[in-house]
Design brief:
The complex is a heterodimer of chains A (115) and B (112).
Chain A (H helix, E strand, L loop, with lengths): L3 E2 L4 E5 L4 E3 L2 E2 L7 E6 L5 E7 L5 E3 L5 E5 L4 E6 L8 E8 L8 E3 L3 E6 L1
Chain B lengths: L4 E3 L2 E4 L5 E6 L6 E8 L3 E9 L2 E5 L6 E5 L5 E5 L8 E8 L7 E2 L3 E5 L1
Parallel strand pairs in B: 2-11
Antiparallel strand pairs in B: 1-3, 3-8, 4-5, 4-9, 5-6, 7-8, 9-10, 9-11
The chains are: A mainly beta (115), B mainly beta (112).
């Protein structure tokens, strides 16, 4: 079965530091990959997505992610973290076909930002 | 604001009861997806409806059912509730052949 793994349950960074959140997906046809962010008490907001083409994708709030087929990875990065980035981040892939919104999510990574 | 509306935001009910969660998709979106988020299972896909028809099922219990109405809003019915059904239930919508889903704020269900 398709799966998504986020190896880091919790990451702490200082404000202004760079950030990289890891995501690995199980082998399969080129997946559609997503990063979502969930702030406390909020829904899931789409940060960015990868379908095909350029393997470096830009998203909202200054985030970017790089698709690496050889490593089955889709890591999320930000050069300088702001305190408002503290949230839980989810990597996801979809099943393709006609169910584009049928997503398999990773376990999530909680980001804490220290001032 | 994603444009997806879920009601109610919070729901507290007793074991054995039945509840209905409601979702209004973004204007023009024909697909509605339901997800459950719990501490032990994480985010799990439950079911997908497209223009009133069921398209895909995930790990949805037999005690749970859903439907999508002609005006495209959807309802998730949860019956014979158990303590373990306490979770955050999300609805998401996408365009007919869109490539991303937009999520609502969720309904937090607490079963006591």
């Amino acid at each position: 079965a398709q799966s998504v793994t986020q190896p880091d349950i919790h990451i702490t960074v200082s404000e202004g530091a760079s950030l990289e959140l890891r995501c690995n997906y199980s082998y399969g046809a080129t997946p559609y990959l997503f990063w979502y962010v969930q702030s406390p008490g909020q829904g899931l907001q789409l940060l960015l997505k990868y379908f095909s083409g350029d393997t470096l994708v830009q998203g909202i709030k200054g985030f970017e992610a790089e698709f690496k087929r050889s490593q089955s990875s889709f890591n999320l990065r930000k050069p300088s973290v702001h305190w408002s980035d503290a949230a839980e981040y989810f990597c996801a892939r979809n099943a393709g076909g006609t169910s584009y919104g049928k997503l398999t999510f990773g376990q999530g990574t909680i980001l804490t930002v220290h001032p | 604001d994603s444009g997806v509306t879920q009601t109610p935001k919070h729901l507290i009910t007793a074991t054995g009861q039945r509840v209905t969660l409601r979702c209004s998709p973004r204007s023009g979106d024909l697909s509605v997806y339901w997800y459950q988020q719990s501490l032990d299972q994480g985010l799990q896909f439950l079911i997908h409806y497209y223009n009133g028809e069921e398209r895909a099922k995930g790990n949805i219990l037999e005690r749970f059912s859903a439907q999508q109405f002609p005006d495209l809003h959807s309802e998730l019915n949860l019956s014979s509730l158990e303590l373990g059904d306490s979770a955050l239930y999300f609805c998401a919508s996408s365009v007919a052949k869109g490539t991303e889903a937009f999520f609502g704020q969720g309904t937090r269900l607490t079963v006591v």
